[in-house]
Structure formats: structure tokens, C-alpha cells
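User: quick one - fold this with WTA bound?
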Amino acid sequence: MSEFIDSILKEHRVFFPSEEFHRSSHIKSMKEYSRIYKKSVENPEAFWAGKANHLEWFKKWDIVLRNDMGFFKWFEGGYLNVSFNCLDRIIKSGKKDKIAFIWESESGETKKYTYEQLLKEVCRFANVLKKLGAKRSHVIEIYLPMIPELPIAMLACARIGAIHSVVFAGFSSDALKDRIQDSNAELLITADGSFRNGKVFPLKDNADIALKECPTIKSVVVVKRANNKIEMQNNRDFWLHDLVSQDDIKDFCEPESMHSEDSLFILYTSGTTGKPKGILHTQAGYLLFVYQTFKWIFDIKDNDVYFCTADIGWITGHSYIVYGPLSNGATVVMYEGSPTFPKPDRFWKIVEKYNVTIFYTAPTAIRALAKEGDDWPNKTNLSSLRLLGTVGEPINPEAWMWYHNVIGKKRCPIVDTWWQTETGGILITPLPGATPLKPGSATKPFFGIIADVLREDGTKANVNEGGYLVIKNPWPGMLRTVWNNPDRYKHTYFEKFGVYLTGDSARIDEDGYFWIMGRTDDVIKVAGHRIGSAEVESALVSHKSVAEAAIVPFPHEIKGQAIYAFVTLKSGVKKSDELKEELKKHVSQSVGPIAKPDKIQFADDLPKTRSGKIMRRILKVIAEGSTEYGNIMTLADPSVVEVLAKNRVA
Ligand code: WTA
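Assistant: Sure. C-alpha cells for the protein plus WTA:
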């Protein structure tokens, strides 16, 4: 990380939007940005109310914003339906035959859905859910790969007012079980299997294991995808294709009229301590926020073809594959598989094939594909591209330059978008027709967002001084609470400074540009995926040979950060390379392959304070191969540090 910080401190290059972009974009200049920004933060309620008029309401709101003892409510008294706004409203505007989704499977199969076709599929799915007894405010768990049924299922939930909770299909049965148990879901939607790198991943088998300990789930809807052999439990498991083809399943489903603050979805994400927390988003504010951010940040035009490579199992997919693009009537490319299958040019081939104009991905993918060499992109025609985006972790200036030169051919602005599961949508970002870009900086706050960097004592940090990134005012897309745990919401996000604490560190430069430096808590971003140290550590400790474990990040060329685990074995257990492999596999099975440690070091002792707290700060320095431990004299036994450093896994 320190190399990365050094490089962004020295970064002084600036890139300006092209004349053409200036002229044709929604927000055309910094002057315009500054003018609208000033108004938007002087009176955010008026700003957002003005934008909310673009949505279609069954009943308009009574009050724009209310602070209910630290819980923020937007557009109370208003009623709408999110799926109606993403489908029926678009169709009514004359776009019934416009393509909503272009889906490509890993093996190259393609499906296209117009807005009209998508509405029909959503309605039929919604009617199936209703027939199975699903109702308003029920929680429906969705454990599906990147197939069209995933967004269709989400929109079907939104249509009937059920709350969806999507679990990334790469997660293990344990992770699925924890999420179902926490959310008390009554219905599960899954598939027989999914494809990744040509291999089948047994989703339904995983679900079956999880369901043994999830008595709340009454029915399981199974999508046939991989054609692998699975078990179907009588009266619990149903094939989607059987249900949806029944005579009484109609092509239309009346959208439920939902109150603005009714729950829309829960999405679990990792935090500092304990199990992942269920981030709750509600209807109107979330929809408005993703609608407006998508429109201006991706500068969407009617003839754009937009491709976001994220998985819908993460927030990026929720907000910028499903709700943001559809509410704007955009054409979205959705890809099922791996970026390197069968070859490392898969993304570029997709861009070429569908004439993609806007491409949104993660820095880890950019680094991985850059490493494969320029020939892959150079051999494809990328001339349709006009705008590029990145999300998920800081982008190092080298990767930014490669993206700019080799993919964007120096022509396409890059929007480096900073946000989080909790924020619902993008908060700090360039606007492509206005903002001069500095490689590695997410640039400036979006309209209506007051971002700042504070010191430990809550005072404002100086120019270029690193500190805690905070958001000082509420915005419509913000999380409303942590599911089943309002205390955790208050404690995690508002206790420290009384304003929203992001968990990131950042600095603001002399031009008011934000530079995100990384997390301040025990969250590790592995290839852009958010992993909590506590989850991986408890997975390690659940292994019979392990007494104690501590994990820290270390810099990784492709993944940005990877996991380094220090493991203390139970007495009498033999240290061996086989055991290391077994532990890696164990984590992979307990959490998911994305959480697997890259390096494991056996440690007879860990550096602890006299009160027994493990000093991860010191472990991180050791894992990085540095010797700048800072003060170690507060440790119960300072000699531990030297022993660990000597045995570091290089
Ligand atoms: C990190 C992903 C630097 C950050 C949308 C944040 C970023 C966490 C950027 C949230 C960016 C996201 N530059 N860091 N452009 N975007 N992050 O909840 O640490 O999976 O707190 O949401 O990703 O991760 P999450």
C-alpha cells in the first residue's frame, strides 16, 4: 500500500474531457458543476425533490426528509413501485421495443429482452411468487448466478413488495445459511448450478446444506441452468419452468403501491466485527439516487450500450446493472462468466460484438487484463467505447493510464466512482463532460453530497493530510439501518463523529480532489471484494487444528490486496505445507473462494497487548515485509515480533 500512496502523492497529470464530450454531456463544465453543486448542498431537499418528479408516483410525498432520532426518512407519505418505474414507465415513454438486457453466457449463448418482454417475465415470476404465498414485506433470498432470472427475480420481488436479499453465488453454504438465518427469509430462489471458467458450481447442493439449518424457508424455486443432477425435495423444491408455465400464471401482475420508506432489499456486507451485516435500502430514495447518479455520471443517452462487469450479487450490480440503468431506460449488457474465458479478450470481444459505448469495471480486472498484454485489446475493435468507469478499490495510476491509453485510446473519460454498499449509489466521482481527471483520484462529491476528511479529534484535516472520510449530510440512497440491528447502525456509522463514517481514509488535495487511501477498519478489499477479517478468522479457528488466527492484508499486484494469515496451531499439531493447503481449502469452503488466504504463516505466538488484544497493525507491517513497526514496547512480549518477521512467508 505504501508504494501506492507514494505514487498517488506524486501524481500531477491532469486529463481534460474532449470538446465533443463537453458539448454533448448532461453536465458540460466545471462552472455548471459548481453552480448546481452549490445549490444542491445549500438546499438538498429542494434539489432532490426536483429530481424526484422524474419518477412516477402513485401518490406524491408529504415531506422530503425527516430525521427520526438518527434514522433518516425520505419522501414520507409518497407511494410508488420500483419495478413499475424500471419497466412500465419506460414502456409508456415509447421504449417498449428497446433492448433492456443483452445477456451472454460464458459459452457464448445470447439472450435479449426488450423492455416489454422483460416486464412480462417479471410479471410472470411475480405471479409465481404470489402463488407460493409470498407477500409484501416477506424476505426472499436469491442465490443465483449471472443469468437473466437474477434481475427478473429481483424485479419480481419489487413488484409484489417483497424484500430481496441476494447472496453472491460464489459464497459458500455457510455464508448462505448465516444470511438466511439473519434475514428470516421464507423463500429461496436458486439454480441447479452455475458456470465459471467452464466448470459447474453446484449451487443447489450448497443451498441444500444451508437449508438443513434454515427452518424459515418454506419453498425453493429452482432455475434450470447447468443441467447437473440435483435433489428436489417434495413439496419444498419446485422448478421455475414448471411453475411459470402453469395456466393460471398471467402475463401481467399489478404493481404493489409501496410507501417510500418500505424496505426494498437487504444486502449483506462485511464490517469490522462479527458476522456480515444486512444493509437495508428502501424504495423511493434508493431508486431516485441510483436513477440520478446513473444518468449524470454515465452520461446516458438513448443509443448507449452499457456494460458493467460486476456481479449482481454485490451492490454495484444491484445499483448499476439493475435499478439505475433500467430506471433510465438503458440497454445493459450482462455477462455470466469469467473475464479470461476462454481467452483474456472476453470483455473486449463483448464490447466489439455489441458495440458497447460505456464500460464499467473494477481496478483488479484492469490490472489482470493489462498483465495479459496489449495485443488482446488491440486485436479487437473498441471504437464504439466513449466512456469508461471503475469502482471497488483505489485505482493505481499505472492501471489508470493503461485503461486510458489502451482501452479508451486516449479518447474516453474515466469515471473513478467511490461509493459503498451502505451509500446505495456513487457519492464521489468525476462527471465525464466536466471534471478534469487526475489518475487515481475519485475527484469530487456528487450533487447534494458534503464529503470531508477529519482527524481523530473530529477537526478538519489540512490539505493533503490523510484522515477519516465522512459524509456530513443525509442523501436519498443512504442505508436506512442494519437489518435487525439498529444499534449497530448507530454505533458503526454515527457514533464516532455524529456524521456518517465511511470506514475509509482519504485526503483532499489543493484542488479539492478526494484521494481514497484505503480502509481504516478491519475490512480487506481482495480483488475489490469486501472481506471482513473476523469472518476469515472465525473460519480458520473453526478448523480442528487451529487455536488462534489473525489475518491482515498485504499488497498484491493484481488483486490490490490479498490475505495473509497468522495461525497458531493447537498444541501437538504438526506444522506442514499440507496443513496450510487444508486450511486454505477450509476457508474457501466456509466463506467462499474469494476469502482464501494467499499466505499462511504458522505462529506460536501473536503480538498482543497486555490486555490480550492482537495487534494487527504490527502483523500488517510484518506481512508487508517492512520493519517499521512503530512502538512495540506496549506488547506483552515484544520479542514475538522479531520471531514472526524472521519466519515471514515471502
Ligand atoms: C472501496 C463497492 C477507492 C472503499 C461499491 C469502500 C473504493 C469500499 C472505490 C466499499 C473507489 C469503492 N476508489 N476505493 N473508486 N470504490 N471503494 O461496499 O474502501 O463492496 O469503502 O461497495 O470499497 O465496498 P462495497
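One thing worth noting: The first helix runs from residue 2 to 9.
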